[in-house]
Amino acid sequence: MSTQTGKAEVVVSPSEFFQIEATERIRSSVELELSDHSYLPKSDFLRADWVASVAVPAFKTLAQRGFLAPRFCTIGTGVGLDALAAVEILQARTVGFTDIHDDVVECARKNIQSNLLAEDVELFGGAGDLLTPLVGKLSQVDVIYENLPNIPMAQSDDLAHGQTSSTFIAERSEEIPGFAEKNLVTLHYLALQQAYPVLRVGGRVLSSIGSRIPISEILALSGAAGYDGRVLTYTWKVQSEPDEVVGGFARWERKGLGPFHFYPVRVLQEAFEGLSPAAAGAQALQMENDLSPHEISAVDAMALVEKGEQVGHTVAILDSVKVAASAL
After folding, report:
1. How far is residue 104 from each of residues 14, 21, 48, 165, 296, measured CA to CA in Å?
2. Which residues contact 66 (CB under 8 A, 6 or more apart)?
3. Cα distance from N-terminal residue to C-terminal residue, the chain
């Protein structure tokens, strides 16, 4: 599925990673350059990888419904695989991408450019906070995709260290709705705010959110930021980096935030068996209710992780559509 060709490069097969028969707009073997800050694709364990198990099914759902994205942007791109998926699946031709580290953005630019077959793709990249690096560079965007970290950083941590910024966020100064702060979805709310003036009417933000909080609280993000929101796809993934992630949620849970919900992997496998992410999205609230007897708090999930057991969580793609002012 993937090979390590050296300390700073990984080779991925899109046919397996994206579950498509053949590629038309990107190379059939994708070579990815990594930096010290790059979030490593979980190409040998797709159920733990955000692009493979969450972003790609959402892009496919839009494409199957006839919604393509000639103008596409991704916030927090990492190695650029989400952008390449959009070029292939959503027929993206104008592609914006951001991340907070210069070296990550430069690697992503090289990765996207070097793996393109299509000659009609124009790239706009920038390092910085959310969409701010692209202010004035992109407008009338069809789809903005984001998969942003959730856990407030402890004072002893440093976002410049390794892959810390893939999981943790720095303290924010903006005014955040109380429910968003309590549920640790601050960056998702801010991304929706920044995206609104960049989108065309009818354009959408796809927010990839680990449903460790109630779906009703996730849907509330759209309304709070002025969008029409719904769940596009619903799926699950094995918790990657469990020591850092589950441990981070457990620390904040002990301080009164949350609670945050995890599940035994076996329960998630059985609940989602035979369901496409789109079909599960259509019944996400009912599935969440059915799963509720099996919820494990972050504190209890951490106890399982410390015993060497795997835990998972559900994931919702929040589809926030920009509607015309007269429709509000």
Report:
1. 21, 29, 21, 11, 34
2. none
3. 47
Q: Enter the tokens of residue 116.
A: 């393109």
Q: Which amino acid is at 6?
A: G
Determine the Cα–Cα distance for residues 110 and 102; give it in Å rounded to an integer.
Answer: 12
Tell the residue number behind the tokens 């050296």, with chain if given. Answer: 6
Measure the CA–CA gap between 282 and 259, rounded to whole angstroms: 25
Does residue 54 contact residue 210 with C-beta atoms inside 8 Å? Answer: no
Q: Residues 6 or more apart from 76 whose CB is under 8 A from it? A: 98, 99, 100, 146, 147, 148, 149
Tokens of 237: 């993934």
pLDDT tens digits, 201-231: 999 999 999 999 999 999 999 999 999 999 9
132 HSE (CA, 13 A, CB side): 6
Burial 38-77 (b: 16+ CB within 10 A, else e): bbbbbbeebbbbbbbbbbbbbbbbbeeeebbbebbbbbbb
Longest C-alpha distance within the chain, in Å?
55
The CA distance from 328 to 322, in Å, is: 10
Cβ atoms 86, 143 nearer than 8 A: yes
User: φ, ψ for residue 107 (rounded to 5)?
Assistant: -65, -45
Q: What is the band of 154 on the pLDDT scale with cuts at 50, 70, 90?
A: low
Model pTM? 0.93
Tell how far CA 29 is from the center of its chain. 23
Choose among 88, 150, 171: nearest CA to 315: 150
Q: Which amino acid is at 160?
A: A
263 contacts 210 by C-beta, under 8 angstroms: no
Core vs surface per residue 208-236: b (16+ CB within 10 A) or e: bbbbbbebeebbbbbebbebebbbbbbbb
- Which residues, 6 or more positions from 16, have their beta carbon under 8 angstroms from its beta carbon? 1, 46
* Joined tokens for residue 175: 């005014």
